[in-house]
Amino acid sequence: MIPHPPPDADLLQPRALTVPAESAGCRLDAWLAQTLAGLSRSRIQGLIAAGHATVDGHAAKASASLVAGQTVCLTIPPSGPATPRPEAIALDIVFEDASILVLDKSAGLVVHPAPGHADGTLVNALLHHCDDLGGIGGVERPGIVHRLDKETSGLMVVAKTDAAMAGLVAQFKSGGVRKVYLALVHGVPKKTAGLIDTLIGRHPRDRKRMAVVSRNGKQAITRYTVVRPCGDVSLIEACIETGRTHQIRVHLAHLGHPIVGDPLYGSRTRDQAIAGCPARQMLHAARLAFSHPVSREPLDFSRPPPPDMLALMDQLAGGSAQPEYSSKRQFTPRNG
Question: How does 83-92 read in b/e, with b if 16+ C-beta sit within 10 Å?
Fold first, then answer.
């Protein structure tokens, strides 16, 4: 286990900052995030809510509008223990250094504690693996930059420092991260490649589900390629340009080709027609590419699907159906 380094000593010192004329009218949290390198806006909001920031000596809200000449003081306490308890849960670690950790999440593992899943999560495992992860990016979800659904397997990156958290959050927000998924879907799409660009929002009748909506939703963009038809099922490669909840599952179902085994957006009848169909969605985060948030080195990771998905692919294809996971297709971030 690589020990987590102590927080940057400079960050832990109380900071007294004067608001310049050009920043008048800015929100307190936004201005601090722009001014202090190495701290994410969400981290700053948490510090403000905990009373670690003042404006002219008085407590202020994150949304406070600043005035030129005001003095803003921010104190950053050392990272404390997170509320979730550490648990010795095995992790499939692909890469790790002092700033980040990349892992292959197993299907069935919940990412962070939530109602019904107070422990036994990835966060509990991370707190056991990393000695000083508590508080990085938030107490309840330390180190978590992005998520995968419980039954979706594959690659995730975790931040181990505030600086890494800020850098990764910025990349996800700007589109500088490439996320490629493999999915087994029912049927064979008419087009071998395509772009799905819709609004996604809460289902109008079932609030536990997401849906393609005509209004009151957020733009969601998914590019897909048919890798290989396997009888009445197809292996799809999907690259998401946005990160909406259940995006790939919703988009492929909207296309008329729901993911095999998906209990929420799939087809139970079509699943039952497949012998030995696993009781989970056949979706795997196969590739993750981004720039190291500290060194700026380009990083590109790929992992094959787990055994249950590979076995079903082999069964449907009548032999070895593993695709070329390490394909280094050209990737240009949206902001570049």
Answer: ebebeebebe
The CATH number that applies at residue 20 is 3.10.290.10
Domain that holds residue 22: 9-74
| Burial readout 261-280 (b: 16 or more C-beta within 10 A, e: otherwise) | bbebbbbeeebeebeebbeb
In a domain, 275, yes or no: yes
Q: Is pLDDT of 78 > 90?
A: no
Ordered alpha helix ranges (H), 175-272: 247-254, 268-272
CATH number of domain containing 111: 3.30.2350.10
Compute the distance between CA of residue 254 and CA of residue 234 in angstroms, rounded to an integer: 16
Amino acid at 60: A
pLDDT at residue 220, rounded to an integer: 95
Contacts of 254 by beta carbon, 8 Å cutoff, 6+ apart: 196, 198, 212
Q: Is 149 a catalytic residue?
A: yes
**pLDDT per position as a tens digit, 161-187:** 999 999 999 999 998 999 999 999 999
Number of domains in the chain: 3
Residue 178 bridge partners (DSSP): 289
One of 29, 132, 149, 262 is an active-site residue; which one?
149
- 244 with 114, same domain: the answer is no
Could you tell me if residue 331 is inside a domain?
A: no
Residues 182 and 292 in one domain: yes
